């Protein structure tokens, strides 16, 4: 065999290894970028969900406060009515 045959084989193998490495790196980086974008979207969705849950909880707290005030008012009226009924008896 001639000395050029080995250099061609080594060169072809080196070129193949280089192309394989570059392609693997490009695919890996593309996948990492894609995963990062998906994670950002997921985090935004979680943030929206948390904000809507917080808003719903605040609305529930306000409604509960209104109901408590009305119940206290009704309790006061009931106490007044009981006093009137006791005086009438």
From TrEMBL:
The chain crosses the membrane at residues 12-32. Residues 57-84 form a coiled coil. Keywords: Coiled coil, Membrane, Transmembrane, Transmembrane helix. This is Secreted protein. It comes from Streptomyces milbemycinicus.
